[in-house]
Amino acid sequence: MSAGPSLGEFEQVVLLAILRLGDNAYGVTIGAEITACTSREPAPGALYTTLDRLEDKGLVTSRLGDPTPQRGGRAKRYFTLNSKGLAAITRAQQSYRRLLEGCELPGLNYA
Amino acid sequence: MSAGPSLGEFEQVVLLAILRLGDNAYGVTIGAEITACTSREPAPGALYTTLDRLEDKGLVTSRLGDPTPQRGGRAKRYFTLNSKGLAAITRAQQSYRRLLEGCELPGLNYA
DNA sequence: GACATTTAAACTACATCATAGAGTAAATGG
DNA sequence: CCATTTACTCTATGATGTAGTTTAAATGTC
Questions:
Q1: Least Cα separation, residue B71 to chain A (angstroms)
Q2: A108 lies in some domain
Q3: Whole-number Å distance between alpha carbons of A58 and A54
Q4: Is A37 in CB contact (< 8 Å) with chain B?
Q5: Which parts of the protein come within 7 Å of strand C, by CB position?
Q6: Distance (Å, rounded) from C-alpha A68 to C-alpha A56?
Q7: Mean of the pLDDT values across residues B99-104?
Q8: Out of A63, B54, B76, B84, which residue is the most buried by the measure of CB atoms under 10 Å away?
Q9: Among candidates B19, B99, B108 on the partner chain, residue whose Cβ is nearest the Cβ of A20
Q10: Chain A within 8 Å of B109 (Cβ-Cβ)?
Q11: Domain-located, residue B104
Q12: For chain B, where are the E strands, in sequence order?
């Protein structure tokens, strides 16, 4: 294979959601962002399993935040895309773009 | 889930390659198109397994062509995207696009 | 301060998807 | 009729995707 690990479909979705959320990306917000953008409602187990795998692959890093002063404000595990993760998602999406170029797909045409 | 089956990463790549190839999509050309657009070199087994799965899901149809008058011109199995397949790939790619909107990814910004 | 409630994460088990590798089939050319 | 070429099929296994259940850690109430 050319370079780096390949990404599964849901892995790409999760990486993009983390990217969108910036410094507020943890399990619950990531799931909510995915629902907002894709109408999917990933089960908690699905999400955390994938997050662990992405961390094992070295595409994201996680740090444990401080508990917040609100009922149930348990410490959150924040995720960040690192440079390797950014490269991987960019490569994957550019492949789709090259395949889409010249195709006529309703709502997905590139200028 | 909202509507229709979800697509794996490679399934999307294969569907898009079939779309690009129009009426000349069969195993070998599909593999070549994938290599041209993504630098990946899928093994034959990987490709045909995925094609079979896509047909089982009702996203593509296949018909057997006539043998061609050339050395090794064995009959080809041609694949076509049907309306369900077109809807599925469109939906999947629109999800990516919504996630990408507003993100700054080098080489992937949308106007 | 015991205990219910809320928010969040971890664990377990299983289904689906991805992939390689080896093998089979059907055509032509010498 | 056998080697060569093009193309597809079969089998086994690892990677990804998913649900469901359980655990953890905070606050609010009585």
A1: 31
A2: no
A3: 6
A4: yes
A5: A 1, 6, 8-9, 26-28, 44-45, 48-49, 70-78; B 5-6, 8-11, 42-46, 49-50, 53, 67, 69-75
A6: 27
A7: 90
A8: B54
A9: B99
A10: no
A11: no
A12: 60-64, 77-81
Cβ <8 Å between B108 and A86: no
What is the spatial distance between Cα B80 and Cα B94, in angstroms, rounded to a whole number?
21
Q: How many helices (H) and strands (E) does chain B have?
A: 4, 2
**Strand C positions with any atom < 7 Å from protein CB?**
5-13, 16-23, 25-29
- Residue B78: give its domain's CATH number: 1.10.10.10
For the entire predicted model, the pTM comes to: 0.92
**Using one digit for the tens of pLDDT, what is the confidence trace for A7-56?**
999 999 999 999 999 999 999 999 999 999 999 999 999 999 999 999 99
Question: How confident is the model at residue B6, as a pLDDT?
Answer: 85
Positions in chain D where some atom is under 7 Å from a protein CB: 4-12, 15-22, 24-28
Distance between CA atoms of residues A27 and A60, nearest Å: 13
Per-residue pLDDT tens over the stretch B67-86: 888 887 899 999 999 999 99
The enclosing H or E element of B46 equals: helix B44-56
CB contact under 8 A, A90 and B106: yes
What pLDDT sits at residue B2? 43
Q: Which residues contact B32 (CB under 8 A, 6 or more apart)?
A: none
Q: What is the mean pLDDT of residues B37-55?
A: 95
- Per residue in A84-99, pLDDT (tens digit) is 999 999 999 999 999 9
Taking 80 as the threshold, does the pLDDT of residue A82 lie above it?
yes
Is B48 domain-assigned?
yes
Chain B contact set for A9 (CB, 8 A):
6-9, 12, 92
Domain of residue A73: give its range: 9-98
Number of domains in chain A: 1
